[in-house]
Each structure stands twice: as C-alpha cells, then as structure tokens.
Amino acid sequence: TTPEIVNNDIKAVFVTLFGSWLGDWDHEDNIMRGVLATPTYGLACAWSGRPHWFAHPMGLGETIGYTARLTQNNSGLYQNQNNPSANYIHVALMGDPTLRLHPVAPPGTLGGTTGAGSATLTWTPSPDSIAGYHVYRATSVNGPFTRLTGSLLTAATDVHGARGETGEYSERQLLQRQSGNFLVRWWSAPAPSYWRHDCAHDFPQRAGEQRDGLRFVRGGRGQRVR
Cα–Cα distance between 193 and 174 in angstroms, integer? Predict the structure, then answer.
C-alpha cells in the first residue's frame, strides 16, 4: 500500500511498477505518487510491463525523460520476446523528467577578465571527480554556442575573441564512467569509458559589474558572464 511504501522508506531513486490499477496516477492515494512522497530517495516512478520500459540510455548519460519518450514512441526499434502495448503513452512517468543516473555537482564562482584580445575565465572546480571542462561561446544568450576549447581543461583558460565584442560564455564539465563504448552528442571515447556533458551552468557573480569589457548580467536561470 502507499502508507507502507512511505513509512518503510523503500530507498529507491527510480522505481517502475506493474500491476492492475497501479498506473492510475490520477486516483486518490495512488501508489506511484506515494513513491515521490518517501522521506529519502524516491524521485521518479513509472508504470512498466505493458509496454516494457527501455531505460538503458540512462547508463549512457541520458535523462529518464528521454527514456520515457523512447518507450512511448517505440514502434519496433527495441523488441523482446513479449512486449504488449508497445508504442502506447500510458506509462505515466511521475517525477522530474530531467533526472540523470549520474548527477554531477557543478563548478562555482565563474569570473572573467579581458585583455589583449582575449578573455580569461576562472572558476572553482566541481567537488566531484570529473575528467575536465569545455568552454563555449555565443553572441546571444539563446545561442547557438560554439565550443572554443580543443581539449579538456582542468583550470582557468584564455578565450580569444575580438576585444569589446559581447559574448555569452558557458562552461560544461565531462563525467567519466565505465559504461562501454559509444558516442554521446558530439564526443566519443573508446571503451571502457564514456563521456557525458552536463547542461550549461550559470554561476553566481555580481550582477551589473563591469570588468574591462566583461559584464556580469543576471539572467532567467541565474547569472552569466559576458
């Protein structure tokens, strides 16, 4: 029952359930919503079995929302011995669809200075064990962002560009895990490692501060350095 799941704190982050009525999330005291009410780990729950849920892309750095869409749109790409109700959309993912299997703590305190036609960006490293960072730039906060670094960075970097030109800088970090050989977005790595990039992070900084052509501005998702 729902009280048993909550009171016993099942300590599972991603949960799939199969059984009659369990997927009726819009009914009172639904067991799927109960998973989200557990005191500790319950962050997502879905109904699985008809159809089967294909969540293996999460091991490659994708979100649970990506696997929900894959499962709902699966019309034959993934098959097993028995998969009734394939391509149906009633799997009802409860929770945040942007959750990943391998979250990474972001870096902090992004800052920058300009001089001699380049911008020097600095940041506080992520407390997690990561492979390094890439820096991106765009002329607008809405993108598109272009990668400026050819190889992974582990410390501050000089980013070359026209002096006085306004730009949005984004720093992204790469996480290394033992999940085999594959291409994620535009990075690839040989086995036994894979690389995944986080979304662009906006780091706290003093809004409105002018620093030799760089201006820190407060955006809708935090603050960005220009």
Answer: 12
Domains defined along the chain, listed by start: 2-95 (no CATH), 108-225 (2.60.40)
pLDDT string in tens for the chain (226-residue length): 788 888 888 888 998 888 787 777 778 888 888 889 899 988 999 988 788 888 888 887 889 999 999 998 988 888 877 777 777 778 889 999 989 887 777 777 777 776 666 667 777 787 877 777 777 777 776 778 777 777 877 765 655 544 444 455 555 555 544 443 222 232 222 222 333 333 333 333 344 433 344 433 333 333 333 3
Count of residues in the chain = 226
Burial (CB count within 10 angstroms: exposed 0-12, middle 13-18, buried 19+), residue 93: buried
